[in-house]
């Protein structure tokens, strides 16, 4: 979590494998908009409807995330999903399958915005793949209310790390810390995501999953807002090498982390 993803200019192309978007599928889109609008100051505009009702969240007029509504008969897990950039989503989806992963949705076109797929790694953790055309993804980073980091929480990092390295070409850097199984994934020498092997400490009700971190200005005030808006605090604020961090859940149970940068 040492560096935020780069802010893309209007014509920038994301390096394949770079986390470029986060999306949340929920059962009650209106109440979810109220929660995140109150928490992060997001506003919402309609987005592509290929998978059902979908909105883009904006901060100061710039896109930061997406939210969609699950079909009423689908009791799928409600969770934030990171999307990783690709130059060719169809080819990347084929590589996912060849390396032991699964492609659950797509590849398919998202109107004029780009082409996407939803996949899972061999351990079952879900992620998206995004090939941009008109829209590159998150247009603003490094300020409160924007995604700042994504971390895979899994059983162990060695085998799943090989999967992500094979699919996206990441460089792996072990995090030197006694008793911790952690890797930092890098592209062109820049940290872009983390892997955390938790062994038997991984929550059984969730299994392997990606966790998104959002930057906040005041973590104490943010946690008060979370509970006031109907969310829950899962792990209170604590110090980390990257600032004060806490884990929370929105009213539908989607978990995410908030971090107050020490700078």
Largest sheet: 8 strands, mixed
Average residue-wise pLDDT: 90
- Globular, elongated, flat, extended or rod-shaped: what is the shape? globular
Structural domains: how many: 2
Radius of gyration: 17 Å
Structural class by helix and strand composition: alpha+beta
CATH class categorisation of the largest domain: Alpha Beta
Give the distance, in angstroms, between the N- and C-terminal Cα atoms.
Answer: 13 Å
Give the neighbour order of strands across the main sheet. 2-3-4-1-5-8-7-6
Q: How much strand?
A: 35-45%
Residue ranges: pLDDT <50 for 5 or more in a row?
A: 2-11
CATH superfamily of the largest domain: 2,3-Dihydroxybiphenyl 1,2-Dioxygenase, domain 1
DSSP helix fraction = 10-25%
Number of strands: 16
- Compressed to H and E, one letter per element, the order equals EHEEEEHEEEEHEEEEHEEE
| Number of DSSP helical runs | 4
Instruction: Write down the CATH topology of the largest domain.
Output: 2,3-Dihydroxybiphenyl 1,2-Dioxygenase, domain 1
What would you say the CATH architecture of the largest domain is? Answer: Roll
């Amino acid at each position: 979590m040492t560096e935020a993803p780069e802010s893309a200019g209007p014509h920038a192309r994301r390096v394949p494998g770079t986390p470029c978007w986060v999306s949340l599928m929920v059962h009650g889109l209106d109440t979810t908009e109220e929660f995140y609008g109150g928490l992060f100051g997001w506003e919402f505009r309609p987005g592509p409807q290929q998978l059902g009702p979908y909105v883009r969240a904006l901060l100061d007029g710039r896109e930061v995330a997406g939210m969609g509504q699950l079909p009423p008969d689908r009791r799928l897990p409600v969770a934030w999903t990171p999307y990783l950039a690709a130059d060719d989503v169809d080819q990347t989806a084929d590589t996912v399958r060849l390396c032991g992963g699964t492609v659950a949705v797509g590849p398919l076109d998202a109107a004029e915005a780009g082409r996407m797929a939803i996949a899972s790694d061999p351990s079952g953790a879900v992620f998206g793949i995004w090939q941009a055309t008109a829209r590159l993804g998150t247009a603003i980073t490094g300020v409160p209310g924007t995604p700042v980091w994504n971390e895979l929480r899994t059983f162990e990092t060695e085998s799943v790390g090989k999967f992500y390295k094979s699919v996206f070409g990441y460089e792996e850097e072990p995090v030197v810390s006694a008793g911790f199984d952690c890797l930092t994934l890098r592209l062109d020498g820049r940290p872009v995501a983390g892997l955390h092997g938790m062994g038997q400490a991984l929550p059984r009700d969730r299994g392997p999953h990606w966790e998104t971190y959002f930057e906040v200005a005041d973590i104490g005030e943010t946690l008060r807002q979370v509970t006031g808006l109907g969310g829950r605090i899962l792990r209170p604020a604590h110090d980390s090498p990257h600032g004060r961090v806490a884990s929370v859940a929105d009213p539908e149970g989607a978990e995410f982390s908030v971090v107050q940068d020490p700078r």
